[in-house]
Amino acid sequence: MRALGLGAGDTVLVHSSLRALGPVEGGAETVVDAFLDVLGPAGTLVVYTQTPDNSDPSRWPGTRGYAVPEEQWDQLRERLPAFDPDTTPAFGVGVLPETVRARPGALRSTHPQSSFTALGARARELTAHHAPDCHLGERSPLARLEEAGARVLLLGVGWEVCTAFHLAEYRLPGRPRQTYSCVVGDGAGSRAWYTYTDVRLDSSPFARIGAAYEADAVREGGGDLVRGRVGAADCRLFGLGPAVAHAAVWLADHGAGVP
Question: Whole-model pTM?
Answer without folding.
Answer: 0.94
